[in-house]
Amino acid sequence: xxxxxxxxxxxxxxxxxxxxxxxxxxxxxxxxxxxxxxxxxxxxxxxxxxxxxxxxxxxxxxxxxxxxxxxxxxxxxxxxxxxxxxxxxxxxxxxxxxxxxxxxxxxxxxxxxxxxxxxxxxxxxxxxxxxxxxxxxxxxxxxxxxxxxxxxxxxxxxxxxxxxxxxxxxxxxxxxxxxxxxxxxxxxxxxxxxxxxxxxxxxxxxxxxxxxxxxxxxxxxxxxxxxxxxxxxxxxxxxxxxxxxxxxxxxxxxxxxxxxxxxxxxxxxxxxxxxxxxxxxxxxxxxxxxxxxxxxxxxxxxxxxxxxxxxxxxxxxxxxxxxxxxxxxxxxx
Length: 333
What we know:
By secondary structure, the protein is of the alpha/beta class. The chain has helices at 23-35, 48-55, 75-83, 114-121, 140-143, 162-177, 180-188, 190-198, 213-222, 232-237, 254-258, 283-290, 293-296, 312-324, and strands spanning 15-18, 42-43, 66-69, 89-104, 111-112, 124-126, 132-134, 154-156, 206-208, 227-231, 242-244, 246-247, 265-273. The strands form 3 sheets. Strands 1, 2, 3, 4, 8, 9, 10, 11 and 13 form a 9-stranded mixed sheet that branches. Helix 4 crosses helix 6 (162-177) and helix 6 (162-177) packs across helix 8. It is globular and about 60 Å long.
């Protein structure tokens, strides 16, 4: 703990960075923690990737204590942590989130497949001869005659966002896998296939809308033709203004996400720097509050904010990880 020598009293407030999706949940826990007599933690929305960059930069009061994440830590990020002396990382899965494509209540009802979304947003798609061409689709109707004759205009997360990573894997990759011409690419050259589903259009059809999901909701209200991508809780909070598109015929709802029928769902996490426990006041107690049944249990205050609770077995693992501060080993990828 040499990094803290003489600086332990320099910070008496927990500092949290990371995912914009997890941000409202962590903020709710921070407020409860503050009400119970602790000093309310400072929570910043930097995006999952940006959060890990800050979290993994080092140990000491100049570095964050917790990182919110809307995907699991990558091996490269874990290695970065280790290299910078962040050797004791605790991973706590806090709940489930549905990834939502939504539009204004004044816009058309959408029922999209992952394949259609891929054909709307990929930088390159197979042409008539099966060879890759620059995406020619201007409207949703160009993608599929059954879809609205509206310009493709999607407001989505930036590359630093865990939501962007999840969207690529759960929607774009799955969509690409369903296209005949790309099945051969996947078989022959995995790297080339990966490049196809990871490359999003840069011609204005996809607009990088930053890390502020509330701003996307405002833009959708102002433009009924646009579609936004964000976590389920933002749809839940704004049902008077926006509606979620069905994905493969399934609506994004609490029951479909928790029951596993909604095809675009993912776990949410917090990562805790165990080396800061006992040095930054209240860190262990803050994590204990997060994993308590009054926070993330089925009737807790986090589900009331739109977090979908974990099944009991997974919740038990999270409670143990948060209570015992179980350190993780390197992820495989």
